[in-house]
TrEMBL record:
Descriptive protein name: Uncharacterized protein
Residue ranges that the Swiss-Prot or TrEMBL entry lists as coiled coil: 38-65
Record-linked Pfam families: DUF6776
Superkingdom, taxonomy of origin: Bacteria
Organism for this UniProt entry: Novilysobacter selenitireducens
Classification of source organism: Bacteria, Pseudomonadati, Pseudomonadota, Gammaproteobacteria, Lysobacterales
Keywords recorded for this protein, A-Z: Coiled coil
Keyword Coiled coil in annotation: yes
Length: 233
């Protein structure tokens, strides 16, 4: 083969290669296009992640707002219930005072209106007893209050007197002095193996006969048992 033919063959091969390279450049994306598309995809991905985080934050905010609303509603319901209970108590007080000092009130001498027993720490119990009288409206009643409690212990009936309840022999009673009513309070102690059944309130006035009134233990410890007249009157 002559040198001229070899040159022609080389030129032909080179022209084919150059044509293929040109076609690849035309139909295939360049490295700059790929980087641009990659950068766009990353920006889109970042934007979507930010939108997701914002949506999650909104959901969390709405959840907290809903919880706050529920808590506020629950607090309001509790406040309304307390006010209803307070109003009911005030109405009971008004009815109590009307029965005691109203124009149509029934005249009665020294009386134990009610007693309430509330458990304290250990074997201690706090008592609050309301005493009333409206027979002598110009005078006053004065004396001392003591309790005795009946119950069972080791399967046998037993009565604990004031000294037993106060854990003090010859313990003095609780003083009272009032015109119309007074709530007398104090503390007593019950043995651990003692089951109370009945409580008796005994009033020993400075003058006149002793007054006694008994209440079942269920009555004395009932949740709805409300004392009226928190101070002497």
């Amino acid at each position: 083969m002559g040198s001229g033919r070899k040159v022609l063959v080389a030129v032909f091969i080179a022209s084919i290669a150059f044509g293929l390279w040109g076609a690849w450049r035309v139909f295939m994306p360049g490295s700059g296009d790929v980087r641009a598309r990659l950068s766009a995809s990353e920006r889109e991905r970042t934007s979507l992640r930010e939108q997701l985080e914002q949506a999650q934050q909104q959901v969390a905010t709405l959840g907290r707002s809903d919880q706050i609303s529920r808590d506020a509603n629950r607090d309001l319901q509790g406040t309304l219930a307390e006010r209803d209970e307070e109003i009911a108590g005030l109405r009971a007080d008004v009815a109590f005072y009307e029965r005691l000092v109203g124009a149509t009130a029934q005249r009665r001498g020294l009386t134990v209106h009610a007693i309430r027993m509330q458990p304290q720490n250990g074997t201690a119990w706090h008592f609050a007893s309301t005493l009333t009288q409206n027979l002598n409206r110009g005078g006053s009643s004065a004396g001392r209050v003591t309790l005795s409690i009946e119950g069972t212990r080791n399967g046998r009936l037993q009565t604990l007197d004031w000294g037993d309840l106060r854990q003090q022999e010859d313990a003095p009673g609780v003083d009272y002095s009032f015109k119309y009513f007074q709530q007398v309070e104090g503390d007593v102690f019950l043995p651990e193996d003692f089951t109370p059944v009945r409580v008796t309130v005994r009033l020993t006035p400075r003058s006149g006969a002793t007054v006694e009134e008994s209440f079942t233990w269920a009555q004395a410890t009932a949740e709805g048992n409300r004392e009226n007249g928190g101070s002497a009157g």
